[in-house]
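Propose amino acids for all 128 sites.
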């Protein structure tokens, strides 16, 4: 059974930091694109950051470049999203997704092609 479980969300003040984790089980991460997407109330889900498990190639949305960092630990089958300088506009449910294809990270992270597997999401709220 393929499963992705997100954790690390919560309430943080503007300018603060959070680290999200996405733990995978049920499959090996030999050749995957894994990404973080977010969905705010009344808005479409959007790609935030993605990474390939092969060579660590990354892709970031313009709105988070310089503030968010995606990384992976293949031995732990976990992908992380370090979020710094958080803004109220970053408030959303954050989802982890994955697809068994490491060659089209831009297509997946831009939303042009949907990721195949999804977690249940974790809430991030940035507010004073």
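Proposal:
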């Amino acid at each position: 059974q393929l499963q992705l479980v997100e954790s690390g969300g919560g309430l943080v003040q503007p300018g603060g930091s959070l680290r999200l984790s996405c733990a995978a089980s049920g499959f090996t991460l030999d050749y995957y694109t894994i990404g973080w997407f977010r969905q705010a109330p009344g808005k479409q889900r959007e790609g935030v950051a993605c990474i390939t498990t092969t060579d660590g190639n990354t892709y970031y949305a313009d709105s988070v470049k310089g503030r968010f960092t995606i990384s992976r630990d293949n031995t732990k089958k976990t992908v992380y999203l370090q979020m710094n300088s958080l803004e109220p506009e970053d408030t959303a449910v954050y989802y982890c997704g994955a697809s068994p294809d490491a060659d089209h990270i831009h297509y997946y992270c831009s939303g042009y092609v949907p990721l195949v597997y999804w977690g249940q999401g974790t809430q991030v709220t940035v507010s004073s």
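The first helix runs from residue 105 to 109. The two ends are 40 Å apart (CA to CA).
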